[in-house]
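Supplementary Note 2. Why include the ligand at all?

Several targets in our set were suspected to adopt different conformations when bound, so apo predictions alone were not considered sufficient. For every target with a known small-molecule partner we therefore ran a joint prediction. The input for T4K is given below.
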Amino acid sequence: MDKQITVTSPLLPDLDEFHDLLKDIWKSKWITNNGSFHRQLEKELADYLKVPYISLFTNGTLPLITALQALRITGEVITTPYSFVATTHALWWNGCKPVFVDVDPSTCNLDPAKIEAAITPKTTAIMPVHCYGKPCDTKGIQEVADKYGLKVIYDAAHAFGVEVNGESILTAGDMSTLSFHATKVYDTIEGGAMVMHDEKTKQRIDYLKNFGFAGEITVVAPGINSKMDEVRSAFGLLNLRQVDDAIARRREVAVKYREALKDLPGVTYFEDMPGVRHNYSYFPIFIDAEKFGRTRDQLYEDMKANNILGRRYFYPLISEFSTYRNLPSAGKENLPIANRLADTVLCLPMHHELSPSDIDRVVSVILP
Ligand code: T4K
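The joint prediction is reproduced in token form.
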């Protein structure tokens, strides 16, 4: 059997370099709670990502939950069903009611033209996702938000380093959150962050992620514990030095896939968007079974039989999970495009370590 090709592979720092930083941590005996590597990583990430303020978290789910807390979001929140389930779970954990709105097929992201019809007097916020790292129509979303006085929190878990016309996508809306999970373009094993516009908000978020402590004996809010420790901050500092190379290699993979799959009946994929610095975090293809001759699930199984593990991100839709499927907005008739995309998508292996022969193996299973 050929070696297994997985949908992704984590970015790992050089072990000797990591060991050197571990020695520093051992020497200092300061292993968490805003240590020096944590502070350094926040600074370096803010520079790299071109954002004014950033706060590190222990994963990508807790900043979503904390952002909703910080903005005191209640009532109904408009969101996309085409995402990882954590997006909607964050609303549920805050006692908010998710209201699903359909997506734009050209990006898989929330369609601003459809948001207005879903707004009620109880709507307080919009939570879009830059799915696969493809930028949302942030201008269109902000226009609706401004018209109705709604907050906007972007789940930017996939959008590390994505820029539009030289500006970070992470500065759109009121806040954006990132995931640094092992499966992401940039990882700290587990990890995440929140991006905000001003120092006061960063201070508040830093309190919230540390139980609400604003000093040794002062608690200013009902906070939670979602801090990143020193070991993962050190890991993240080293990965930051190699993430550009990793993105460049991912780009080469995307170019090869596009070249190999162009003109193949029944298979579509995304091209780069003008003015966008993409991060190539995922390579989704969409299968039209009639034209392709196999269903998406047949192709998925064919790949598996060849030891290639593609993933059906994001199938099933969040609106199809038992927790959410009885919501009034979860019906298939309300979300025809998201349902079609979920039923036809297959994410091909995409990471910095794929060799030309790995890519050939993936492509050979797809070609007739
Ligand atoms: N919002 C959005 C839009 C998200 O996509 C996510 C997470 C979040 C919020 C929440 O962020 P976090 O709280 O997770 O930071 C993965 C990830 O667990 C999850 O982080 C990610 N999105 C989601 C899209 O995918 P799985 O269950 O598909 O991962 P798993 O364990 O099956 O791994 C997939 C493949 O990756 C494996 O076949 C091989 C490779 N892999 C994975 C791990 C964990 C490795 O090579 N090494 C590893 O250590 O969920």
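Residues 6-10, 59-61, 83-84, 86-87, 129, 155, 157-158, 179, 181-183, 192, 309, 311, 313 surround T4K (CB under 6 Å). Residues 230-261 form the longest helix (32 residues). Comparable summaries for the other entries are listed in the accompanying table.
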